[in-house]
Amino acid sequence: MKRILLLLLIVLPLLCGAQNVSWRFFDRYAKSPGFSSVQLERKMMRMMSRQAAERGDEKLAQLLKGIESICIVALDGGDGGQFVADAEALVNHASYRFQPVMSESRDGQVTRFYLRSAVPPGYSELVMLTSGPRETVAVNIYGRFDLKQVSRLSTIRPKRPSDSPEGR
Q1: CB 44 within 8 A of CB 68
Q2: Measured between alpha carbons, how far is 46 from 144 in angstroms, rounded to an integer?
Q3: What is the C-alpha to C-alpha distance for residues 114 and 150, in angstroms, rounded to an integer?
Q4: How do residues 41-63 score in pLDDT, each as one tens digit?
Q5: I need a surface site. Which of 14, 48, 98, 141 has the fewest CB within 10 A?
């Protein structure tokens, strides 16, 4: 029994550290001058899930219900070289097991998506890195989802004042 407890005490911090390495990256840059950040936590995702269900979009509701958090960090201006280098070091580090799933390059903007199976089993983590002359952004999505479901997130659009009758 003591051996099992000792083994758990040794292995558990390693598992938690691997899970939280990308969160540490996002936290560091979210608090740095020259960056803007948005974090959507579990409670917000549940609220958005209920709204999607009320609109009749059950697939989107199910996806949102499974997402634990979304973190977005964007460079406000200046050189994002170190930010991009740190983000690429994170997703390319062998022990974190991120797999590239898609990349796109258009007009000098490069966007790459990386996915990994996370801890606990059944959870996934998706990282999107966009860099170029127009914007430099990193997005982290963590929760229970698969790659096919994530494309549903693109259906969520914030309403602009010009979209409403009052804004016209």
Answers
A1: no
A2: 13
A3: 12
A4: 999 999 999 999 999 999 889 99
A5: 14
Give the predicted TM-score (pTM) of the model: 0.78
Q: How far is residue 130's CA from residue 45's CA, in Å, rounded to a whole number?
A: 23
Tokens of 70: 């979304």
pLDDT of residue 12: 41
- Tokens at 9, concatenated: 């005490």
User: Residues, the chain, total?
Assistant: 168
- Beta-ladder partners of 37: 73
Cis previous bond, 120, omega within 30: yes
Amino acid present at 90: L
**Owner of token pair 């914007």:** 135
**In the structure encoding, which two tokens stand for residue 65, read together?**
């219900």
